[in-house]
Design brief:
- The chain has 243 residues and is mainly alpha-helical.
- The protein has one domain (8-242).
- It is built from 10 helices and no strands.
- It has helices at 8-28, 32-43, 50-66, 73-96, 99-118, 127-144, 148-154, 160-184, 190-213, 219-242.
- The two termini are 28 Å apart.
């Protein structure tokens, strides 16, 4: 492991993107991975997706505490139950995947995320749909550190505090599972941990900003920008994978 696996310029860019991702997720409940993973993958592959996975854990726990009075406990329980087998499936996929496959998986996950979050389709909530969504989220979370979009679809019609609180609790448990599985499979390196530590100040700053914005900013106003940036980043990953 080198002292610094990326350049100072790349670190500065990564700090800004981490801050923006934390602001987005802290404000609307989802978006940290969708925004940061594809962009940072293009800056330098070492920056994603594992450092974002490690950073997402403290962000999720902090949001859970902040929004604790608005949690949909029953829905989160079924989602988390599904996330465990989903994480196992994702771990199996990781064992088979080359770097190009990872790029394609991340790009595909982003495209799916954009389509899911921009659709007008309403999902009828049930134990089965919550569990199935948890499985999909577990797979996406393990492979690309972006397990939020499927869960966000289930809560898209809920009030803002319920969305943020329920997704934060789900992420807290789900991300912990994903990190433990990656540790067990030796899929977290020293560089991953170092980068997460270096980017942590950006996460803290973004969380503090989101705490001031969440009651004033309508999530719908910033989602189009997220979709545009994420889709462009996904296209860039596809170009790199096939080049």
């Amino acid at each position: 492991m080198t002292l610094l696996p990326i350049s100072v310029a790349e670190l500065a860019i990564a700090l800004v993107i981490t801050l923006l991702g934390a602001v987005v997720q802290g404000t609307i409940g989802v978006g940290f991975g969708i925004l940061s993973v594809p962009i940072l993958s293009l800056v330098d592959p070492v920056l994603a997706p594992v450092p974002q996975l490690l950073l997402a854990v403290p962000l999720a726990f902090s949001m859970t505490w902040r929004e604790r009075g608005h949690i949909d406990g029953r829905g989160v329980a079924w989602l988390f139950t599904g996330r465990v087998p989903g994480a196992l499936i994702g771990l199996w996929i990781l064992g088979l995947a080359a770097q190009r496959s990872i790029d394609l998986a991340i790009a595909a996950s982003v495209i799916v995320a954009v389509l899911i979050l921009s659709t007008g389709v309403t999902v009828r909530r049930s134990a089965a749909t919550d569990f199935g969504t948890g499985v999909i989220a577990g797979i996406m979370g393990m492979v690309a550190s972006m397990g939020g979009p499927p869960a966000a679809l289930l809560f898209k019609d809920a009030q803002g505090p319920t969305v943020r609180a329920s997704l934060a609790l789900f992420f807290s448990g789900g991300l912990t599972v994903t990190v433990l599985f990656r540790l067990f499979a030796d899929r977290i390196t020293g560089d991953d941990v170092l980068l997460a530590v270096l980017l942590f100040p950006g996460l803290v700053a973004g969380y503090v900003i989101s705490s001031r914005l969440r009651h004033r900013l309508d999530g719908r106003a910033i989602r189009p920008a997220i979709f545009t940036v994420s889709m462009l980043a996904a296209i860039g990953l596809l170009v790199r994978a096939f080049s």
